[in-house]
Amino acid sequence: MREIKKILVSLPPIAESMALQRARQLALKLDASLDLLVMDPLLEQSGFLEQQLANLHDLGIRAFGKQVPVSADHASDTILEAAARLDSDLLIKQHSRESWLKKHLHLPDDWRLARGSRVPLLLVQGQQPWAAGSVLAAMDVEHHDEPHLALQGNVMDYASELCTLFGSRLHVVSAYKPVSQSNGVAFAEFDRSMAGHFVANPHTAYSHSRSSVFSMLNQGQAQHCRDQCQWFALEYELADKQIHLGAGPASEVIPAVAGQVNAALVVLGTWRVTGCSVR
Questions:
Q1: CA dist., res. 213 & res. 155, Å (int)
Q2: Which residue has the higher pLDDT, 5 or 98?
Q3: In terms of pLDDT, which residue wins out, 151 or 211?
Q4: Are residues 164 and 264 in the same domain?
Q5: Are residue 150 and residue 249 in the same domain, yes or no?
Q6: Are residues 103 and 187 in the same domain?
């Protein structure tokens, strides 16, 4: 997949971590080597590291590793430095779940990692099987400048290649901004056949005639979004039921559609790199 031959894995010192499980899967599929970074502030995991490397070697996987004196929740700078030094093609890390307080006091470490990485990042959150499952590609189709178009192409290519690799079904989601009335209440009523499967119920605080106007405007927004999806719908031979449009913030639309299609993997992009995240 896109010449991924060297995978860097951020590894907490626990047996059978989800990140290592995904790394093994990809290494075997892609004939790639693994570089393990065992996160331990006390540097007391040499035995653990040796055991993990031995297990990988028994599977025929080329693997190397070292301990680094940091905690897994504050490892972004260390991981980025290692990726540059090792010339890694992919980063894999188990997603760090932070408390509400920590999220509001500072930027999450995984966010820093995603923004700073110059290669694809796989954030692992669960053990749902990839084989014969669903992969969801999140697309921003409202911007048409060259960087955004290139990013769209990267997202679709990675998602499609992962589907081929694991026999999964490709779905695409795109969010658009609904037309709002003066008090900020958004109307997102649109035809289900036109706008996919993510449909928000309209508020009814305004008169029927006023609501009808905004409903029609939002139908136009939905159709415009669908029109922007045509290039990849044709190129990747996607049926209508594989394209999902939603009115509202992408941070709400994407998880909702991911749950609806039971996606094992969500592929999305940042300005710096295409990234992957696992539910």
A1: 35
A2: 5
A3: 151
A4: yes
A5: yes
A6: no
